[in-house]
Amino acid sequence: MESSRIMQCFNILLIALLLLLKTQGQFVPLTRLESAVSKGAVCLDGSPPAYHFHEGHEEGVNNWIVHIEGGGWCHNVTYCLYRKDSRLGSSKEMEEQTYFSGYLSNNQQYNPDFYNWNRVKVRYCDGSSFTGDVEEVDPETNLYFRGSRIFSAVMEDLLAKGMAHAEKAILSGCSAGGLTAILHCDGFKSMLPNGVKVKCVSDAGYFVNVKDISGDYYIEDYFGQVVETHGSEKNLPQSCTSRLTPGLCFFPQYVASDISTPIFIVNAAYDSWQIKNILAPGAADPNGQWGSCKTNLKNCSPEQLNIMQDYRSQFLKALSPITNSPSNGVFIDSCYVHCQTEPQETWFTNDSPMVDNKTVAMAVGDWFYERSPSREIDCTYPCNPTCQNRVFDLQGYPGIH
């Protein structure tokens, strides 16, 4: 009898959750781009690239958001093989529909500035932020490093589906997809007709090159291996590779000053992924002294918090190429979070995190439509009560190894 009541309560809660989801957004089917295979534009396993597309309407019918999925990178053959049989390396493993909420929602109440635009979510299956291009395929691994071709093929397909007639367009992404939005920002604009209002939004994609807690540049070495494995050098900005090593040109701080298209950075100053994988990766903390701290900042010792505050200072310094341009915008909060545009909770609700009385949605909208400048930079942790000491740590964004 008791178990029956528990099950009944569970079903009621499940129905309520599904009704809430239906109100805030919608499920969108997967499109596999079979025509891209003949161009060699394929995922790690050779399967076709894929995306989800929800058409715009009314005033938004000629406006486009192209949003790139995140999911880390693979820096050598071993880890690319590991991804090959997952959704991050094969469209065969992707779910047939995904949920659009937050920045991609079709509900005006929850996404007031972009709800009626054409909204696309490009799935991530190459492991290089869509920069790789190696012609040869090793018969022993059958790995395809073709991220750059995927990006071009998907954009060509979207242009044919109406994006060629766009009036406004945004290239955006979360995490590794946020890095894609930075590295491909000018290239995206060049694909569209003259006169289109084009801007880019990077969510949790401003990865910085700083020393880890052991004093090593672990992330610099890692990014260097990503670029080498995927043959990314030729697809990184030449203005950067002509003066720095290719691996450094995978970092936004070294390429941002040469991007001419307006760009907006949404990032936590204490980005949970960067804290766990750049500042205090497992290799730099073999005894696990940072384990509890990385789970929740409230568990950090005073010394660890001091290191965090120094990290924030380095992050803001690395952000200067963005903030030095009046056409760009930023929303840098002090929450412990990674990716804030897709989850409705962090994008736009009654209790979303705010900086200078703006949610992420308000800041991005004000910047895109030029209603007011958006240069929201939060005070230091734990100053912001709108974070409510929540720990936002999205699943599906793997760490580095």
Automatic annotation (TrEMBL):
Keyword hit for Cell wall biogenesis/degradation: yes
Protein name, as recorded: Pectin acetylesterase
Signal peptide: 1-25
Source domain of life: Eukaryota
A single GO BP: cell wall organization
Chief localisation class: secreted
UniProt entry tagged with the keyword Hydrolase: yes
Function field: Hydrolyzes acetyl esters in homogalacturonan regions of pectin. In type I primary cell wall, galacturonic acid residues of pectin can be acetylated at the O-2 and O-3 positions. Decreasing the degree of acetylation of pectin gels in vitro alters their physical properties.
Pfam family of the protein (one): PAE
